[in-house]
Specification:
The chain is built from 14 helices and five strands. The longest helix has 30 residues. It is globular. β1, α1 and β2 form a beta-alpha-beta unit. α4 runs parallel beside α14. By secondary structure, the protein is mainly α. The chain has two domains: 213 residues, 3-Layer(aba) Sandwich (Rossmann fold), CATH 3.40.50.620; 72 residues, Tyrosyl-Transfer RNA Synthetase. The strands form two sheets. The chain has a three-stranded parallel sheet with strand order 1-2-3. A two-stranded parallel sheet has the order 4-5. Bound molecules: adenosine-5'-diphosphate and tryptophan. The site of tryptophan has 13 residues, from β1 and α7.
């Protein structure tokens, strides 16, 4: 079974990325699944025009993936732009993709509603994502809930392509979404996202984590009064990190009163700092050697290109597209 997923180098990694996506990648890799994990830097072009920043975030994400446990000996780990065939496949998929289909995409509509320019890159984003997935004959795509529709569109495009040429050329993949952590809330209670300024970052100092946790929005129930654990952002985040016993104890303290949101926020920060202490140490060492990071990506790119090349030969062949240079 081939498992594939990608993350855009469009901001600093946060605990939503970890619990929603990266933790699944590492578990899958360590179970022995064949993994393909990459940095979606072509996708990041839809949100940044700052070349220096994009290079910096590319290294940040590379070190981040490796620090949380992606092992380039076990998984194919690479940069999207090291596989130019992916933009070629995107074109083939565009030719079987109805425009009406794209107009239904939630993420496109959300981005336009937030004021982003309605350019073709943004519109075509899901087709490029489908190409990312289909070019490696991926079977399973682990992602957070927000990506569900993109995976459904990928399935539809694979089916449409196969129907158009009356041949099983592309493998139809399945999403894998961990329901328990489908959407990790940010410090304001909305989905945690690089673009909402509401994150708790993965790679930072314990002090910075404590500061971000202190900003989690709660109601203004005074310390001595009972509180409702069911409607609390701090509890929602503690669920990801605390043991069942500790969570039950904190919830009981909420109901009893005399336990403030500040106590719960401090405990959350401690748990985050403990959980990511090792990864942070690895990250600091990795980010200090950018040449080694580029070397790792270069090696992964070779493996990814070899697979992409085989798929593209199949795709060109069935469509009657010749190239004369290979
Ligand atoms: P962001 O929304 O911060 O830009 P990305 O879109 O780059 O994050 O997401 C990378 C991966 O992390 C995707 O699989 C996405 O579903 C997952 N992810 C991002 N934010 C969350 C969240 N708040 N909860 C669960 N999963 C998330
Ligand atoms: N759209 C994804 C996100 O924002 C990133 C991505 C690009 C992706 N290509 C992919 C995820 C292929 C899974 C598979 O998170």
């Amino acid at each position: 079974m081939r498992v594939l997923s990608g993350i855009q180098p469009s901001g600093k990694l946060h605990i939503g990325n970890y619990f929603g996506a990266m933790a699944q990648f590492v578990e899958s890799q360590n179970r022995g699944d064949e993994g393909f994990y990459f940095l979606a830097n072509y996708h990041a072009l839809t949100s940044t025009r700052d070349s220096e920043l994009l290079r910096e975030l590319t290294l940040h994400l590379t070190a981040g993936y490796l620090a949380v446990g992606i092992d380039p000996q076990k998984s194919v780990f690479f940069l999207q732009s090291d596989v130019p065939q992916v933009t070629e496949l995107c074109w083939f998929l565009n030719t079987v993709c109805p425009v009406s289909f794209m107009e239904k995409a939630h993420s496109y509509k959300d981005k336009i509603a937030k004021g982003m320019a309605a350019n073709m890159g943004l519109f075509d984003y899901p087709v490029l994502q489908a190409a990312d997935i289909l070019i490696y004959d991926s079977n399973v795509v682990p992602v957070g809930q927000d990506q569900k529709q993109h995976i459904e569109m990928t399935r539809d495009l694979a089916i449409k392509f196969n129907q158009a040429y009356d041949k099983e050329v592309l493998v139809v993949p399945e999403p894998r979404i961990r329901e328990a952590v489908a959407v990790v809330p940010g410090i304001d209670g909305q989905k945690m996202s690089k673009s909402y300024n509401n994150t708790i970052d993965l790679f930072q100092t314990p002090k910075q984590t404590k500061k971000q946790c202190a900003k989690i929005v709660t109601d203004s129930t005074p310390l001595e009064d009972p509180k409702d654990p069911a409607n609390c952002n701090v509890i929602a985040l503690l669920k990801l990190l605390a043991s069942e016993e500790e969570l039950a104890e904190i919830e009981a303290n909420y109901r009893k009163g005399g336990y403030g949101y500040g106590h719960a926020k401090n405990r959350l920060a401690e748990l985050i700092n403990e959980k990511f202490a090792d990864a942070r140490e690895k990250y600091d060492a990795l980010i200090a050697s950018p040449d080694e990071l580029w070397d790792i990506l270069r090696e992964g790119g070779k493996k990814a290109r070899a697979v992409a090349d085989t798929t593209m030969r199949r795709v060109r062949d069935v469509a009657g597209i010749a190239i004369t240079y290979q």
